Fold Universal stress protein.
Amino acid sequence: MLKRILVAIDGSPTADKAFDYALALAKARNAHLHVVFVVDIPVAYVADADPFPFIEAMRLQGKAIRDTATQRLKGEGVDGDVEIRELLPLGGDVAHQINVAADEDQADVIVVGTHGRRGVQRLALGSVAENCARQAQRPVILIPPAAADASGAAS
């Protein structure tokens, strides 16, 4: 029985589809939806630069994403919350943070899009979704870029 769902978002179209799916699932199951955004700047982007402007930009993006997700939760009447996590030092493991958040929230399932914005890190280390599924101690639902409308997900 699904009572607690965690969805990881990053502002990408695929993460938006994962959020749509998780929102529909939570609404249909009357479950709590915990939304997580991880502030992460891959080391390759700031190797020769001051990382603070990049970190601050990601924090601002996280706040905007949090506000939008919170509005959608309220608009759909879904019980939930939105968390922003930071990866410091830079270059940490986003997938690990998603799984830690799922453990802390005692999520029954993790929902994640299969193509987030990971750039060079994805090429070098594999995708966040793939690593999240490998590390997970609970079921993970992977939402591909060409996912169908989420409304059928809940049934």
In short: The mean pLDDT is 84. The first helix runs from residue 13 to 29. The beta strands are 4-9, 32-39, 80-86, 109-113, 140-143. Helices lie at 13-29, 43-46, 52-76, 94-105, 119-125, 128-135.
